[in-house]
Amino acid sequence: MSEQEMELSEQLPKCPFPHIDGLGLEPQLRHLLYDQPNSKMSLEYGEGGAWIVTRYEEVKRVATDRRFSRAALVGLDFERITPRPIAPPGSIFVQDPAVHRQMRSALAGAFGSRALDRMRGQIQRTVDELLEAMKADDGPADFMSAVADPLPTRVICQVLAIPSDDEAWLMDQVGALKRIDPSHRTTALEAQKTLHAYVVSLVDRRRRDPGTDLVSSLTAGAEEERLTDDEVVSLVISLILTGHDNVTNELGNIVFTLLTDGALRRQAETDFSAAFEELLRYIPFRRGVGTPRVALEDVTVGDKMIKSGDVVHVAYMAANRDPEKFPDPDELKPDRLKVPHMTFGWGAHRCPAEPLARLEIEIALTSLFARFPGLKLAVPQHEIEWQRENVNRLPLSLPVAW
């Protein structure tokens, strides 16, 4: 980075994304959505500044325009909100179309309708077991530790055929890896290495002795189409990380919202599908912005010229509150006109495990309220503790009674 570029970076407006409690749109994102769309800002870590795109149509444009590259991030100390990049080199999240398409297509069968039909029964049994254990305590119980946290761990371990004895250890590594406080940097890096070594060993075993699980499927295929071991390892780690977070975050946030909004809960009982989509749109389940892209040439977005080499973040959570697409965006309206939300991303990098996440959340929610029709918060709403150690936004605990 040249001295002139360093000076320009230091002059850019600072844009930290501090933790906030609850599920309101972050003040910084609200400001960037309503008052300063398509602004170049300085984030907490990295150098050079980054554009933050917040409006729905412009987010959609950047997410689908091949002139914006994820692969070009590799090796850059780009501006971000975490001490280290969330997506490591080789991850599916930092691949461009040719490699990304091959990696994503390898997952297509695993999360297709037939595969999900086969998994439905197992997921239902897992949910029933967790709810039965929660009920056995006679309440109050913490919904997060009883259901929201263990459910996706068990499901992804079943999909990958990871031994149940390894589940708790695996999630300890994931938890340590996600810590973003600089004081935990060494612990996070060690957890990253430990998890990587575990998955490398897992892939090696399945390559030599395949079964019927997803890891075995990823290592199979014709020689010219087969993924490398590094690519399989990257996919498996990505599934472990995102498969847990998406489900846990959404379950905790949706249950909190339904238990604090009686009218919405009644609407959900009448039309679950519509309420579910509106909840997914409304809830900001993570903090700030995620993995950005790099402009490969000069591109005009909105009224701004983004120069070749510039880093560009898209803010999906802000796009979900764009009033031009969602009138009265801060209100929960299950009967609003159906405009696709961006909670699972958009374009080629839309979450590949979205169908599985949706199935888990749907089964868990419908089963929860069927078994506990009188479910309520066991503490006043203002006493709910919120997670403040990583980029996820969700209740740290959610005491419930029935």
Automatic annotation (TrEMBL):
<keyword id="KW-0479">Metal-binding</keyword>
<dbReference type="InterPro" id="IPR002397">
    <property type="entry name" value="Cyt_P450_B"/>
</dbReference>
<dbReference type="InterPro" id="IPR036396">
    <property type="entry name" value="Cyt_P450_sf"/>
</dbReference>
<dbReference type="GO" id="GO:0004497">
    <property type="term" value="F:monooxygenase activity"/>
</dbReference>
<dbReference type="GO" id="GO:0020037">
    <property type="term" value="F:heme binding"/>
</dbReference>
<keyword id="KW-0560">Oxidoreductase</keyword>
<protein>
    <submittedName>
        <fullName>Biflaviolin synthase CYP158A2</fullName>
    </submittedName>
</protein>
<dbReference type="InterPro" id="IPR001128">
    <property type="entry name" value="Cyt_P450"/>
</dbReference>
<keyword id="KW-0408">Iron</keyword>
<dbReference type="Pfam" id="PF00067">
    <property type="entry name" value="p450"/>
</dbReference>
<keyword id="KW-0349">Heme</keyword>
<dbReference type="InterPro" id="IPR017972">
    <property type="entry name" value="Cyt_P450_CS"/>
</dbReference>
<dbReference type="GO" id="GO:0016705">
    <property type="term" value="F:oxidoreductase activity, acting on paired donors, with incorporation or reduction of molecular oxygen"/>
</dbReference>
<comment type="similarity">
    <text>Belongs to the cytochrome P450 family.</text>
</comment>
<keyword id="KW-0503">Monooxygenase</keyword>
<dbReference type="GO" id="GO:0005506">
    <property type="term" value="F:iron ion binding"/>
</dbReference>
